[in-house]
Amino acid sequence: MPDSIFFVGFILILLNQLLWFSIAWVRKDNGLADVGWGLGFILTALAGYYFNQEDPSLLLALSIILWGARLSTHIFMRNRLHQKEDWRYKAWREDWGDKAFQKSLTRVFLLQGFFLWIICLPVMVTSWQQASQWHWLHAVGLGVFLLGFIWETVGDYQLYQFKKDPANKGKLLTSGLWDLSRHPNYFGEILLWWGLFIYAIPAGYWWISILGPLTLNYLIVRVSGVAMMERKQKQHPGFADSAEKRPALIPKISRLFKSRTQ
Fold this sequence. Notes:
Layout lengths: L3 H24 L4 H20 L3 H28 L4 H10 L3 H20 L1 H8 L7 H29 L19 H17 L5 H4 L1 H13 L2 H8 L5 H7 L17
Helix pairs in contact: 1-2, 1-5, 1-6, 2-3, 2-5, 2-6, 3-7, 5-10, 6-8, 7-8, 8-10
């Protein structure tokens, strides 16, 4: 039954989260949750295509597989570069003390899995409704997705290359896409998920699908993305100057036409 995708997606995500929790606990590195994050989307996309093998569903699944594989690979390489647990997860682990096991399971992996399931709603709704006809919104959604995907990929690559250089330790990246906003990678991720939502609109039940990008928006802007990074970067001596010149999220395209000294 097509509506089984909601249950199957839930089970696949749950198993994915439990697997990565087990690995993370053995290695004492909850940062592995971010590697498993992208893989959870891939599993759900594959399940969605299994229940609906029409062309629109295939293209949607391939888009998410492309994004999820790139994201998980990037995070894996980033973690290898730092050779230590992500500072956010390390702080939580230290705060939790002897309750780290249950809180890591519930507050990191299971909670993340719950949000992952909600964000995947555009995928599951498309599969559930057995969407088979092409619609002009598919082209619009795919275009927005590709723009966001490229923006996030380039932003992540620029940051990775910047941090690889020991001479940049303690500095803020303010060139490339990072000159247009303080968090171009997060902007790209938000944009691409709105693209996937647009792609899913022709399947119907858009008021269910929209919960996906809205949830992602909230998490990135208010919880674990921009908000958390801003609290850390405010301690940097160059943050105030950067914040005065650049918005946090939406690129300030006018900076492309200003001199590099501005």
